[in-house]
Write a structure and sequence with these properties.
The chain is mostly beta strands and about 270 residues long. The protein is built from 1 helix and 21 strands. The protein is rod-shaped and about 125 Å long. The mean pLDDT is about 85.
Amino acid sequence: MAGTIVVSDIRSDNDNTITFTSNTGETIFTANLSSGIDGNFLANTGVTAAVYGGASQIPVVTVDEKGRITSAANVSISAGGSSISAGDSNVAVVDSGTGRVEMNVDGSTRAIFNANGLGLGPNVPSSGIGILFPASQSASSDVNTLDDYEEGTWTPIDASGAGLTFASPSGKYTKIGRQVTAWAALTYPSTADGSNSAIGGLPFTIFNSAPDRSGGMIGYKSDSTLTTILGEENNTFVAPRSNDGSRISNATLSGDLIHWAITYNVS
């Protein structure tokens, strides 16, 4: 039959080698019991003999239906300025070559990782190590999603309508999601004004709901009447109150130093 090679002799030598010989006397191939089959009889596939893959590369090979490798190449996985993206280009991880890795979805930057941590959106962390939220909150409708964190300062002002000027007013706040905690210190001026006292300037508007207005804690006071403060819903001021819950006038707080804090919810 055309193309058929008849093996007429199989010989085993003392060096653990088995030789297959054709009926024409040609050596078809040899197999060494120690080192394997002599591959000289195999046809070249065109694949370059080399080591493929490494710490910064992955091997990409093509295999035919008979299990033979017909092509092989290396693909870099750590080149600066490159990107790895899905076939539809909706998701990509981009190393911009500036020491950060960006994650993009549908053409918009959703997160940036660098030596300072994680920045949400296009924000780049610039100091320390932590999570950077956008300057303007991108609110989520999922109640289990933390979508905002902020720290800052604010200045207490008179909100009673009497036009009073507090001495040395100062304030700080921390916002975590919907919850805001604000701290303040101020001294009332000498006044005989009988209007109900109100301290405004809160950094965020209190949510328009009675449970969200919360109550405040008096850390220090130089007045015996003042016992608590209560936030006013849908407003940015608190109302100093007495032990029975009634409002306190500006005149009652004349010259008083007050340190206080309040925790409330925003929309």
